[in-house]
Write a structure and sequence with these properties.
The complex is a heterodimer of chains A (293) and B (259). In chain A, 71% of the residues lie in helices and 0% in strands. With 293 residues, chain A is mainly α. Classes of the chains: A mainly alpha (293), B mainly alpha (259). At the A-B interface, helix 1, helix 3, helix 4, helix 5 and helix 6 of A face helix 1, helix 3, helix 4, helix 5 and helix 6 of B.
Chain lengths: 293, 259
Amino acid sequence: MSSTAEHRASDRWAVLAVGLVAAPLAAGLVFMVLYSLGVVGMLADGFTLLHWARVLGDARTWITLGFSVWVGAASMAASLGLALALHAAFGAGARERESESVGLWYAPLAVPPLVAALFSVTVLGSAGLLSRLAHAFGWIASPREFPSPVYSRSGAGIVITHVALVTPFLVLLFERLARNERLACLAETARTLGATAAQTWMRVRLPVLMRAATPALCVYFLALTGALEVPLLVGAQYPPMISVAIERRFSQFDISTRPEAYALATLYAVLSAAVLLSVFSVRRKRERRERGA
Amino acid sequence: MMRRALVTALTMLGLGCIALLALLSVARRWPWPAVVPVGLQVRQWREVLDPASGVGGAALRSSIMAVTVAALATLGGFVTSRGVARHPQRHRLLMMLNLPFAVSPVVLGVSLSYFFLRFDLAGHAAGVVIAQFIVAYAYAVILLSGFWNPEVAALIELAVTFGADRVQVWRRVLLPLARPLLVLCLLQTFLISWFDYALTLVVGAGRVSTLTTALYQYFGSGDLRLAATCALLLLAPPLAAIALHQRLASAAVAAQWEA
């Protein structure tokens, strides 16, 4: 096959690949916009901005969005800190060889979010294992006295469950990135040039790891912000996280809330896509600039 | 020394979680403040495994759906990822393939609900499989595009120079080379479907029962013992698969981000 023909075939496969993913997303987005504007759907009464006005004017929308971003950011920050600490403890010493401790991190990958939430309830709930142990030690007299993070309005239970789910993924990611970026060699060079252990971490390891991991961390952050299962099982009734709020409005018996569900879903889809596109674009521009320099 | 202690502590923690679920699944009663159950019984297991409970059927449906999604996504992903990896706009395409993970699965399900209703796929396992396929396929392309590196391109060229035709290149060069990554991709895409609750809830419209929906129903009804029994059924296949492929997976996790 000639080079041009090969490239054309390659282009066709690429178009198919993106089309299979992007086309349904784009079609879904257009449908949601039209439905929320009253143009299509069972409740279509002609073009109206009423549903959008209701969603955007409702303080609960912004509380829900803010709460989701807070839970996503807190989960991500805590997981990141813990994963970096564990990477330092387990993987930072490994050079080109596979770290013997890596295998440990695969087991949690077999735990679905629903099961992780169940763990949280049975361990951290007000009648959970820790509460029973606290009673056995004589620290509390009734389940109500136990400061359970589960079902708390601060979202602490959701954050703890997310951290337990995401940290192993991040440890594996850092382990792999450290090997790909030859971090051990870079660190050794820095040490040879007189850097202290702390300087090596802050000036070499951390920047290299964070830079390589930025797209993955961005996707993880968005996935945590839009999570459904853990907030559904471990979260308080109010404030709900964004996915729970959309699902509630969408699956209500009274379908009059459906246009609002579509408006809320559109708002979140646009915001999350914008965050993803910005992070990837900034990274791409920086790479181009560096290549040019 | 400290590292070993940490490994031991984390291993004990993991085993402790499984043991807690196992204990809960055979507990007769576990009233507060008892630290261990008051009596043991296998009634929960009998109830969950009873055909009348529907959990067996849900497990079978989950398995069939997950195997279908994994096979289609991996096959499709392997064939098309080459086009993405070699495309001049590769980074832009990979960014677009990340979109299903950025927008919540609930938003994905809600946005596609009209089309599923129109094509009579809402409330059917086939509809849920199609919705899960979109996510799993995007993941497969991202993961497998890392395979098409300059070394692989050089090997293909070498095989062609020695007279291999296109079928021989795929059979004798590409498939053996990609096997570990393909197995990992199969496993990961299987898990995407096996773990899914959001798409099953929204697209399945409460009419497609899987292990995750069964677990949620038991949890919602307040019976944590039955939920724990269901959770163990949900954990068993991925734990077994990960134990089998631990070494293989270690070579390729995060490969997608190299792209």
